[in-house]
Amino acid sequence: MINELNKVMELAYDAFQSYRHTSGSRKKEFLFAIADEIEALGDVLLETASRETHLPVVRFAGERARTCGQLRDFAHLVAEGSWVEAVIDTRIADRKPLPKPDMRKVAVPLGPILVFGASNFPLAYSTAGGDTASALAAGCPVVVKAHPSHPETSRLIAGAITKAVTKCQLHAGVFQHVEGNSFEVGKILTQHPLTAGVGFTGSLSGGRAIYDYAAHRESPIPVFAEMGSTNPVILFKDALIHRAPEIAKQFAASITIGVGQFCTNPGIMIGIKSSVLNHFTSLLALELSMVPAYRMLHEGIHKNYLEGLDKVLYDKGVETVYHAHAAGDLVASPVLARVKADTFMKNPDLHHEIFGPFSLIVVCDNKQQLCEVWESLKGQLTTTLIATDHDLQSHPDLAEKAVNIAGRIVFNSVPTGVEVSNATVHGGPYPATTDQRFTSVGMEAVKRWVRPLCYQDCPGFLLPDELKDDNPLGILRKVNGNYTRDPLG
C-alpha cells in the first residue's frame, strides 16, 4: 500500500511542475470540461448517488447543479486573474537614508492537495466538490481520498474528471482518485512529504485526527477541516409574537432537511421563558410531527445519532417535546427536546452536535442567562438571530456578541443552505474549523491553496505575467497603494 501511495504522490508532484504554470484561460477550459463531463453522466449519476445514500434523486439533481456551477464559477475567477492579489511597490532610488527596493508580491500555488470526500454531500463536498474545484483553480494537483459510504458515485465523478484531464491534454497526475476503508490510507497521504495541504469536511474527531497527523510531520502543512457545528439560533420575543407559525415551519424544514445531515443544521435554539416561547415550541413540535422519517446515509451516522439522543434525552432535566420512534433499517425520526438554561450550563454533553434531525430548545430566565448560554458554546459555522428590527434595536449588544461566535451570522432565515458566492464564509472559530481565517465555500476558498511570494529587485523578464510592468493579463493590481489595471508608466 505504501509503495502505491508513494507513486500517487510522486505523480501529483510531477504534475505540479507544469500545472502550477497553467494559464487562467486553460484552467477555465479544464474546469468547464469537468462540469460538462459530470453533466454528461446523466441520470446514472443521480440514481447511483441516491441508491448509495438513501437520499432522493431530486436532491442530487440540485447538488449536481451546485457542483457544476461552482466549478464554472472558479473557472471564471481564474480566467479573469485578479484573484492572485498582485501588489507592486516600485523602487525609490533616492530615498534616504537607504534606497527603497522594488517589491512585488503575488499568490502562488502550494503543491499537491489531499482532499477527503465527505459522506453527506457526495457531489458538492466530495470528489469534485468545493475543495477539489478551488485547489485545481489555484493551480494545485488534487488527490482525492474517496469516502467509503458512496464509492460508486465517487468513481463516476473521478472518471469524469479524468476524462476532462485527457481532453485538455494535462498531466495525468493533475487529478488522482484513491480508495480504501482504512484510516491508515488517510494518515499516510496526510503525512507524505509531497503533500502540501489538506481539505476535509466531516466530524470533529476525524478532522482533529488529520490535523494532528499534519502537525506531527517533519514539515507541518495546513489542514483546512470543516468539522460541524450546533449553529445556535437566538429567538427574540417580538419576532415570535408576530411570526411564530412561519418561523416554526421554516425551522422544522431546516432541522429535517437531508434527514438532518447538514453541518449547518440548527441544533440548539435559545430563548427567554415566556408563553410566546412555549407556543412556538408547540408549533415546532407540530410541524416536526408532519415530517416523515427517512433513512440516514449509513450505519455509522445512524448509530451515532441514536447514541447522541440517548445521552441527551435521558439526562436529568431534559424534556422530550417530540419524538416519534421510527421503525426500519437506518431510519431516523425528527426529535425536539427542551431544557432549562441552568441545567444546560452544567452539562457539557448537551453542548455537542447531534448529527441528524434533532434540535434542543434552551429556556433562559433572562437576557443575561441567554448570553451566558450563547457564549458557552464553542466556535460555530453559523449563528442565527430571529428578530424584528425592534428586537435588534432594543438589544444591539446581542448582534455584536454574534461576531465572536461564528463565521456567518444569519438574520431571520435558516442556516441550512450555504450560498456559493464571493462573500460567503463557511468557516468559524475552532472547533467548527481548524482555521477560521478561511472559507471552504465560495470564491474565497481558493486562497487556502496558495501562499504569498515576494520578488525583490527581480529583472523584468523573470517576473510572472501578473507582476510585469505592462500588465499583459489586464488584472487589477495594487500599485504603490492604489488599485489599478493600468500598466506601469
Can you walk through the features of this model?
The chain is α/β, with parallel strands linked by helices. Helices cover 40% and strands 18% of the residues. The chain contains 15 helices and 19 strands. It has helices at 2-19, 24-40, 43-53, 57-80, 130-138, 151-167, 183-191, 204-215, 237-256, 275-289, 299-313, 341-346, 367-376, 389-394, 396-402, and strands spanning 87-89, 103-109, 113-116, 142-145, 175-178, 197-201, 223-226, 233-235, 268-272, 294-295, 318-323, 331-332, 335-340, 358-364, 380-386, 406-411, 450-456, 477-479, 482-484. Strands 11-13-14-9-8-15-16 form a seven-stranded mixed beta sheet, sandwiched between helices. Strands 17-2-1-18-19 form a five-stranded mixed beta sheet, with no helix packed on it. Strands 5-4-3-6-7 form a five-stranded parallel beta sheet, with helices on both faces. Strand 3 (113-116), helix 5 and strand 4 form a beta-alpha-beta unit. The longest helix is centred in the first third of the chain and has 24 residues, at 57-80. The model has no long low-confidence stretch (mean pLDDT 97).
Portion of residues in beta strands equals 15-25%
Total beta-strand segments: 19
Q: First CA to last CA: what distance?
A: 57 Å
Structural category: alpha/beta
**Mean pLDDT metric:** 97
DSSP summary: helix tally: 15
- Biggest β-sheet strands, sense, barrel: 7 strands, mixed
